[in-house]
């Protein structure tokens, strides 16, 4: 077996299952899961109706590069959404993928060069664990950049030494962040692009939460937008990852894309032809419909906005609530005397609510875990369930005050 498999950590939900093992929550309270970032809002009816009536694609092999119409639709969406100077080339700068998870993993395998001794991948901590697993299995070392409250939950890139930048082959960004919801500002993105040029590394920006934000006048900026601001219209060294899972409540469609530097995407496409991961034709055509429509996305944001407003109002009298810049997570600070595991375990035992300990999403750096004493709460359930969860959490907090 590949010896790098031994480096992989258990997935956070495996740890959570062990934490809850043997606990019998109160039977008179229905379970509410705030632990998994799986959207529960209704999928757009025009997408589900199309899929139900158009299954002829099952009789054909899809191509790895996907339908030209889908790539053109994505390129147009990117130009409009991120105010690009030009639409990315549908032929060379956009590749449809089966959700960002598989793309983040496979892109890392294609990018990392084992010819360099001890190749390094930099990533935020806490993080989406795929960044780490993909890096280990590509033969790279991971360097974790803590996202602390005092730095607005963003990595302190000034703390990275010159020698560490020199070893870096790939930098992962997650903006809006999972689990913190922090948005990387345009000034930081342009700074990172300059560092990538100086030290010869690739920037991979995971932007799958970019369409969930509170202020319609201030959508989160993206990496390609920073390229456009710099006049860097070839997107050199830069790639972005987007998905319909969160934007359109279609996690089961497994539809997303990678876009950016054509010189990176060409060899990545070659890798994908061997990877065996072409998107089914009916999923591609349904994706075209989803990327072309913004009304359902606006409605989606309104519903998340309502849930954040109501949950924060209910909890305001018992704790300090820090609303995220974007995304659908509350990065909740646990009360004094309760670490994140104890809080998650007792909340489940007494209120039948499941949240994810923040330390499961991070790694110790010099003995400090940037996710410690926080829990991730995904406000993905219905409005009624989110209200009920907030009331129960309030009751729990009052009982331990």
How would you describe the overall organization of this protein?
The protein is α/β, with parallel strands linked by helices. The protein has 2 domains: 145 residues, Aspartate Aminotransferase, domain 1, CATH 3.90.1150.10; 235 residues, Type I PLP-dependent aspartate aminotransferase-like (Major domain) (Aspartate Aminotransferase, domain 2). Helices cover 40% and strands 15% of the residues. The chain is built from 14 helices and 14 strands. It has a 7-stranded mixed β-sheet, with helices on both faces. It has a 3-stranded antiparallel β-sheet with strand order 9-14-11. Strands 1-10 form a two-stranded parallel sheet. 46% of the residues are buried.
Overall body shape: globular
CATH architecture of the largest domain: 3-Layer(aba) Sandwich
Task: Characterize the biggest β-sheet.
Answer: 7 strands, mixed
N-to-C CA distance: 51 Å
What is the residue-averaged pLDDT? 96
Helical residue percent? Answer: 40-55%
The run of helices and strands is HEHHEHEHEHEHEHEHEHHHEHEEEEEH
Give the number of helices: 14
